[in-house]
Design a protein that fits this description.
This is TPR domain protein. Helix content is about 80%, strand content about 0%. It is an all-alpha fold.
């Protein structure tokens, strides 16, 4: 019955049947039921219900690909629930498997990098994002390149950081969130290089053109206010923003 529902993409109807198999004594159908039930919970972002099912799948699965599925999704679920140390632990488990494909490898490195950023472990984040750059595509590659520029900025390599931001704008222009964040970073670099005019121009452009990204606009406004206050100390024609 559960398989029939699944074939017709009626996962919600199939879920109770898979749960019945999961809760019953172990049988030849248990592994598939664990897999299908966890997929249902993951598809509905019900992380708390997915995790114990995935944990069972990890320990009980006979097929190696199901172990990888369980570990990679335990990694993601823990990250979504802000359990960053556990997320990193599962990501490291995933990366120990020599047979995983580039997509799963990139996902694991991204989880490590993002978790490190969330926990202010920037050394680990830098190392992880360097690995992400080697294998990622699309938006994840844009994210990794942004952090490449970010860490160069933190290290005082402002010109090199701007070169990386330009690469980001050229190669990943479709990913506007990271384009916008890159421009704020570029403005910070220009100000550090004593070009307040260019920095101000870029920040005003971000505030005008990227209103859909509240966090980026807030950062741009804060940086612009800081620059105007600093510049007003040496130039009476510039009034600091309130």
């Amino acid at each position: 019955m559960a398989q029939l529902y699944t074939k017709n993409n009626l996962l919600e109807n199939a879920a109770p049947h898979y749960k019945y198999v999961v809760d019953a004594s172990r049988s030849e159908y248990t592994e598939e039921a664990l897999m299908k039930l966890s997929q249902f919970y993951l598809s509905s972002k019900n992380w708390n219900k997915a995790m114990p099912i995935l944990a069972r799948l990890e320990s009980e699965a006979n097929f190696p690909q199901n172990v990888v599925f369980a570990q990679s999704n335990l990694m993601k679920a823990n990250y979504e629930l802000n359990n960053y140390n556990e997320a990193v632990s599962y990501a490291e488990k995933v990366l120990k498997n020599p047979k995983i494909d580039n997509k799963i490898q990139a996902d694991a490195q991204v989880i490590i990098a993002r978790s490190a950023i969330k926990t202010n472990n920037e050394d680990l984040a830098k190392t992880a994002y360097t690995q992400v750059e080697k294998v990622a595509t699309g938006e994840t590659a844009a994210e990794a390149l942004y952090y490449n520029a970010y860490f160069k900025n933190k290290e005082g390599k402002h010109e090199a950081s701007n070169v990386t931001v330009q690469q980001l704008a050229k190669n990943y222009s479709g990913y506007k969130y990271y384009s916008a964040k890159g421009l704020v970073l570029m403005a910070k670099n220009f100000y550090a290089l004593k070009d307040a005019f260019q920095a101000t121009y870029i920040l005003e452009s971000v505030i005008t053109n990227f209103k859909e990204f509240d966090d980026v606009v807030a950062e741009a406004k804060a940086e612009l206010s800081k620059i105007k206050k600093e510049e007003s100390k040496t130039n009476s024609s510039i009034l600091p923003e309130d």
